[in-house]
Amino acid sequence: MSTETSELTTQTPDSGSSKNRERAEWLQENRVRVTVLAVLIFVFVVALLGLDRDDWFSTIMQGLSVGALTFLVVSGLSLIFGLMDVFNLAHGEFFMLGAYLGWTAYTRADTLIDVAIPMLLLGAPFALMPLWRRIAAMVTLAGRARKTSAIGAIVVGALTAFFTITRFPLVIWDAENFAMTPTNMTVQIDLGTLAPLPAESFSGPAIVAILGVLLGGALIAFGFSVLRKPGMESGAIDMKRLATFGGLIVAALVLHLIKEPVNEWIFGLSTTWRFFLSMGVSVVLVAALGALVEVVLIRPLYDRPIYQLMITLGIGFILIELVREVWGRPEFTMARPAAFAGTGEGCPGQGLGGFFSGCSTVEVFGGRLRVYNEGFVVLVGIVVLVGVMLLLKRTRLGMVIRAGVEHPEMVEALGINVRRVFTMVFALGSGLAALGGVLAAPSIGLSSGMGAVFLLGSIVALAVGGLTSFPGAAVGALVVGLLQQIIIRYGQVGIPIPFVEEPFKPSPTVVPAASIVVMVIILLVLPTGLLGRSEK
Amino acid sequence: MTSTTLDQSAGLGDWLRRRRGLLASFALLVAFPFVISIIVDGQGLAAVVNNDLGNARFLQGLAIEVFILGIYAISYDLILGVTGILSFGHAMFFAVGAYGFGILLKTFELAWPVAVLVVVIAAIIQAFLFALVLPRVHGITYALVTLGFASVFWIVIQSSDLADYAGAEIGLQGVESPAWFLDTTNERFIFYLLCLGIFFGIYVLYQRIVDSPAGRVFVAIRENEDRALMLGYNTFWFKTLVLVIASITAALAGMIHTMHQPIVTPNVAGLFWTVTALLVILIGGMGTITGALIGAAVYRLLEYYLDRWFGGASGLLIGAAYVLLVLYVPFGIVGTWRARAVRIKQGRDRLLRLFTGGDDGRTPARE
Q: Which residue, of A286, A372, A382, B311, has the fewest CB within 10 Å?
């Protein structure tokens, strides 16, 4: 908070009368904004002074931790909204999916490999899209019959793919059987006793399953290419595409042959390395899903904004139901990686150096903190903030994004493929949300409702900071995090209210309500948020 | 159905003639429990009046849920579809009615007309709260602010601080019915008729509102608010009026919900309940009023039967259906029907000619 104001007030130094006038004008224009910021800082300081001195540092750090997780969600939301005016209500669910996929890569890597094999095979025919388009161009059918046959091809292809994918071997958890529940597996990995499950085999001949999936993928790809409007450029069938097609199939087959040694290797790694691995896997998978969603579902609706909003709601709903079906409804948690779980001799660590002692907790300035929650998560949040800022300010892509936020039509007129940038930003935003999800999994656990909670927090952060401003998103996330932690702390102490005997103790469930109230007040005073620009 | 209401010469007979479809469906729905009782249950007419257990009684309950959902969705259609105000806090309008009525009856033991009056007043105040922020924020920001209001209400209503009144996360239960005709367990058929009456009453009222001069201004606000302003309409008061009407209607739906369901869960205040209203008017056709009712029936029945056939996977199917609807049927059932009415009529006439053999004297497709 304090760095933000110092930057604002020192923007124009005190030299020369024209500088002074500029400064006066700037203050005149932004007086509401400055007042709101000052009031916010004042409230924070007063709230902190009301607490025990020993609690200051830990409260601020816990606020930063929640703020960092919120920031990871809100950064994507802000970029997507700023660039393409899509308010992605499924963003919280990308966060949730990131957590679940991260847990799977961390705890049950063998399941993920088993799923990856048919998925690679299914995706392979899509690499040959120009071929299908060529064939589709030969289909001479009248409008309606053409459409019906295309939808027919997609349905038949999807059914073929579905029934052949179920024939692939799959080792998986089982929510019904206690020894195989996700909760139990988390306990096992914590104890270091989790081992890869014995590999299953194909039900039925393997060649039929493999060819069936390929056929299904081809039919779906063909159906989509028939549905495409004629006259669009279809591209050439060059070596690159053929190589992608072959490469995907070979990759799937090789992965199937070597999956047992790979599983052994992954399960032999230390949990710290597996954690970093699962972060990468989850980010890549969810970013790919985000790109797919943008291309297939959101792109057709750019001229109908309200429908875009609705379709993102629908996507979020589907993802929640999917997670409930696959991972089960009960909540579970992810085991903390070994580097942050040390106990025993010499623990908790002392002072700031204690963050690097390998202990799970550390005592700093009289308060006790968890190294993972208040150290690592905050660190990743800061790294992402700096990284995205650099991306926006220093790279060509960042320049296009900033220009696109400012004036999309002009960027398009200059011959830049804005659609491709849209897809990339959507993927980037989804990936950041997934990163937040994996980070949140060991500290707050996994549940199908976690997305909604963080979406609410990040909507507040976005609105407080200014809808289209990326630094605003960071400030908003910080405000939300600090506010929530201070109120939680006050819930334990109690807020003294004049003329009332009992101090008012808000229960933890009403904490989000307070940040929403702050959001509503700020929006009413400043409809564009703290750092957003007013729309002309 | 609405397009011909501009001629003012209508007497009662003419009104009835124009509304014959509506009256026929009303009569059909009154007869519906008796038909089910005779055909499916194999019981007599008296079984319905005596409130015997069976399919007839169960289907009446399902129909009452459709009516509640329909009344709720129609009010959202007035806000979003007709006037074009993007509000994401509509569940709060419903929940204030549901929770308010239940708490007033159970904890404060008010007589039911007084409770209804208090809830209506609360609904009006709440509509003014939603209207108060209208001049400050527009579009997506208004959606966020209203979502914020509703979320605060949702969080507060299920917090443990209010457990004595609202029952925390479990919900409000044990509200006893204050009058014999509001008793859904013992007088199901009477309650069914009451809900049916309210349902059709609200529908006719809303059609009248949309066709009234004020209703034309609502549509004008949706199409181009600046132009409506320039023509001299104070759009703020018209939007406030819309919010007040919708708030009272949704609160009414909430009150019936409290009477019909044994527990009022906090879900009816959450974002998902707003999304349900959105889904319903999307299925039916946005801004069509009729669509909200048809959408409610389709949605509730689809939800019920999908759940019965597919169990846990039904949510996934509903979500997929929703996405496909948004992509491929954006104008909903009624919207698509109206857009294709001429072609459908031509097709029907061709079919009739096929059966009757040659021209039956009608002129095909007048519209």
A: B311
